[in-house]
Specification:
The structure is a single chain. By secondary structure, the protein is of the alpha+beta class. Helices cover about 10% and strands about 30% of the residues. The protein contains four helices and 18 strands. The strands form five sheets. Strands 13-18-14-15-16-17 form a six-stranded antiparallel beta sheet, with helices on both faces. The radius of gyration is 18 Å and the shape is globular.
């Protein structure tokens, strides 16, 4: 559900009625305030769930090396916020280690020992040819997305092994050094608007969904060219290239709004 602009976004605000991070004191109301404790993902992928129960909805993932700021613990479940994309949720304590490491490299290859965009401080974890120094980025997000063709679609996933629609966009943007918000409505605010007639390779196209009892806020894709998109879609079960007209007709038939087009680069 897309939050009201006048209130803090609960998806990215580390606060509950009973507890909030110390930095929010005076900004949001809570029963207590505490500083968050930095940790980082020590496994290739760690699921982030909406609730403490691991059977609750998966809303995001941590990729190896990403920081997670912990504020609460219930048994073996930790509640906090993923520092890279800002999502708040619950993670298994077994997937994390203390501290937020300063990475020297990121994983730049698709078929590596760790997922694309994993943050590496110890280069012995991955083959050197699969790494790029922090600060060395690719230049074409669509080319990154094309390398992910065939990756399975899975709601809540955001990696080179499985992904949902906004996760594909996010990972392609990360690889190119751009901000990569997690949700379609956040991605629809990136860059600047362009008309459908002017849409070209690299533009984002987002079909926003009306509010409802679901965790998604829309469907995101990249324009591959003037007439085709590349996207992760449950309809096809994978990252695919599809005619824009076909994707547009299906999204509208499913109740999504007319698409918006956003240009990330001039």
């Amino acid at each position: 559900m897309i939050p009201d602009a006048a209130t803090p976004d609960p998806r990215t605000t580390l606060a509950r009625p009973d507890l909030a991070e110390q930095a929010l004191e005076g900004l949001v109301r809570a029963g207590a305030y505490r500083p968050a404790r930095p940790m980082h993902a020590a496994v290739p992928l760690a699921d982030i769930h909406a609730g403490a129960d691991p059977a609750s909805e998966r809303i995001d993932q941590l990729i190896y090396g990403e920081a997670f700021d912990v504020l609460d613990q219930q048994g073996d479940r930790l509640w906090g916020r993923a520092r890279r994309d800002g999502l708040v949720g619950w993670v298994s304590a077994a997937a994390l280690k203390p501290g937020a490491r300063l990475p020297t490299h990121r994983v730049a290859a698709i078929a590596a020992a760790l997922p694309l965009n994993a943050l590496v401080a110890d280069t012995t974890d991955v083959s050197p040819e699969d790494l790029a120094p922090i600060g060395a980025f690719e230049t074409d997000p669509v080319a990154v997305a094309e390398r992910l063709l065939g990756v399975p679609h899975s709601l809540g996933a955001r990696s080179s092994t499985a992904t949902d629609c906004s996760g594909l966009i996010q990972q392609a943007l990360y690889a190119c050094g751009f901000a990569g918000p997690r949700h379609a409505d956040q991605q629809a605010a990136l860059g600047h608007a362009v008309d459908r007639a002017d849409a070209r390779r690299g533009d984002l196209v987002v079909w926003l969904s009306p509010p409802g009892d679901h965790g998604w806020t829309g469907h995101s894709a990249f324009m591959l060219d003037a007439d085709r998109v590349i996207h992760a879609t449950g309809h096809h079960g994978a990252v695919v290239v599809e005619a824009f007209a076909e994707a547009d007709a299906r999204c509208r038939a499913d109740g999504f709004d007319a698409p918006v087009f956003r240009r990330l680069q001039a």
